[in-house]
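User: Some background: our group keeps a shared notebook of sequences we're curious about, and every so often someone picks one and asks for a predicted structure to add to the entry. Today it's my turn. The entry only has the sequence so far, pasted here. Could you supply the structure so I can complete it?
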Amino acid sequence: MLVAIAVGGVAGLLAIVQGVLAQTLQHLLYGLPPALRLSGVPALSPIQLALLPMGGLCLVLFKLASRARRRSLVDAVEANALHGGRMSAADSLVISGQTLISNGFGASVGLEAAYAQIGGAIASLVGGWLSLRRGDVRTLVGAGAGAAIAATFGAPLVGAFYAFEIVIGAYTPAAIAPVAAASLAGAQVAQRLGLVPYLVVVTPGPAILTTGYLLYAGLGACCAVIGIAIMRAVAMVEARSRAWLPHWARPVAGGLLLIPIAMLSPQVLSAGHSALHADLPASAPLMFIATIIVAKSLASIISLGFGFRGGLFFASLFLGTLVGHLYADFAGLIAGKPILDPGNAAMVGMAGLAAAIVGGPMTVAMLVLGATGNFSLTGAVLAASLVSSTIVRETFGYSFSTWRLHLRGETIKSARDVGWVRTLTAGRMMRRDIATIAAATTVAEFRRRFPLGATSRVALLDERQRYAGIVTPAAVYAEGVDEAAAVAGLAHAADIALSPEMHIGEIMALLDRAQTDELVVLDKEGGVLGVISENFVSRRYADELEKSQRELFGEA
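Assistant: Of course. Here's the predicted structure to add to the notebook entry:
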């Protein structure tokens, strides 16, 4: 608890520092008034618009400066899912720097990824210094990331549920206390320093009736469709830009493509804080709202698809308010009279789209509750968020963070700990005491060397001492076998084997596909290293799964 509180306070402080740095960079570059953010300016001059491709160039130079880190950078979600919460401080500084440059120069991305990254990294480092268990490190990483989010939104519940839903991947009794304590600490640090929360308190609208819940469930379904479209579009644009442009030209080209969109409306730039606060209480024409939705979506897709780094959390909040406004206006046109409060619809849309893209329905529900204090509205928000997240999960299967990991070849769909599977490799689990014999050996010679009951299997080797199959003595001792024949004729699984680095999931799949009880493990030259049986693998998997569940619920 004490460690979590300390980590939460530091994470909140570092999140504030990053926000101040990005906002200061925007003010210096664009000459903004002290109380105004980039997305709230009425218009930008051609010289100011030229800063967008310049930002892309600066990002390229920053990437070149950190080019030694060629491997993929690990974020908090991937660290908790695959690496037991272990995060690299250098990786986290690179991610933070790339996000600050992207946001500071006006790309349509948020800073939330950088906040969670630094908060999680601090927690991971502390967990390593204290030699904490794997499960405790994962909890602490979630607490650090959640505390950073709690500080920026000024809402401890938002940070806590962000930790549970996004970074830890489960609500667990053992994690409640440290995560809540860290989120409270992060929010308190922000409050003591006078930080203005990302989402200011909104005047609550009228109470929601039963009909309203049904209509808002439809809004959640619309948000799911829009969220899936945005996530797929980012992947498609990223794939095309990688195919058509060298890596150093992608951010510059992205900055150039952002210029005409920013000329249409500067609201599409940066995360959209000022634009959100201006649009929430506003009543704008349908065509204007629809235009901003398309423009902001396109700006975010281009920014992320062309190599700028950042998140879609706040962008989804901003887009969701516009979708909610548009939905309420359309519902009124169809009914012939206003049937949904635009302010309520904006908050429900904000939560529905954020739940679709970020993947945390309770996180956004607590965000709305903290901003409005309206429990009736929060109920509608929760209903729409659950509809949205359920549709996304059943038809698409990923949040934005896990979708990006999927495109890299990972198979995770949440931050739930599956990294232990990768630690159980064939090289670690195999038995090395496997008997071998030449494949050309006769059945009679085999029977002389291996009496029935001496061993359960024998690996065959060819003339170059490479693996040539497995023979079970029971098959050799069966009636009717020609004693003069080569034992190789009784071998099975000659063309199927394991490599030492294969993990237990791959081993079980290969055993099932081969329909055999055991497989040998080979080195790169085809030499036999050991053997693994299906019974042992199944038992080891069950034991490790039970251990993982005990750690998850704090019983280890």
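Suggested note for the entry: DSSP finds 24 helices and five strands in the chain. Strands lie at 435-438, 458-461, 467-471, 518-522, 528-533.
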